[in-house]
């Protein structure tokens, strides 16, 4: 059977079952029949032309590539960085076999249920502003979730996006030298969109959730992708124009880490203290137990759980 015919057959049988496909909600639990999920997935595939349709951005999403399966969009982006690619290209994948997160952690997400992409930016930035780029992305994701879904997303410095203390997304920024040694930033973003509770492994580093679980309804990933690319474009233009203050102000507003007492690992050493602020270039400012004020940079430091 051809792919188109198989999809048609599935759609017809879904039509016949229409009466049984409503979402069932039980407390905070999102329970979906496999038919509901299959129909939604079929109707809501990430298609490049649909994502770019009516996208009003200057740079981000100038070219959109959608892949059914890949190892990691970071790997594809790395290869693309050595070609004459269009600045602002975004590579989405429906499934990754070797998805990765910060500090060499794996990042996995069931097929058709997440937003997994890498954005390539040709950007000449001072190396100590790399953390600011992570923050710019975290601000965009948080703002998009808050404004489009009215969910109370927050940032755990530097790159975790949480809802109610549970991880819903993350940012991974890598630097690659492209043609003529130009700096290319590879910005990997992973968001748990339509996962149900059964989709999460029992043990994760941080408790995890999805937008659909929090929203108690499945989410249109295409609309979310468009809203997010637009918001990233807006914040990236603020960064390009050196208005760092706007970014750090918004970051502070969204950041759950300020005021927390925690232990941070930096270049193999542990520091305990209270977080007092986010510095002007996106570092975490802490008052250590000995009274010393120290700023940690996101590329080196990880918060201990
Ligand atoms: C983190 O929270 O540690 C960052 C997660 C980043 C995951 C995304 S998914 C798309 C892109 N491809 C990858 O392999 N990783 C990033």
What does the model show?
The protein has 305 residues and is of the alpha+beta class. It has 2 domains: 25-253, Bira Bifunctional Protein, Domain 2 (BirA Bifunctional Protein, domain 2); 257-303, SH3 type barrels. It is built from 8 helices and 14 strands. Strand 1 and strand 2 (29-31) form a beta hairpin. Bound molecules: biotin (BTN).
Structural class: alpha+beta
**CATH fold description of the largest domain:** BirA Bifunctional Protein, domain 2
Read across the widest sheet, the strand sequence of neighbours is 3-4-5-9-8-7-6
- Helical segment count: 8
Report, as a whole number of angstroms, the end-to-end distance.
50 Å
Bound molecules: biotin
Instruction: Summarize the main sheet.
Output: 7 strands, mixed
Helix/strand order: HEEHHEHEEHEEEEHHHEEEEE
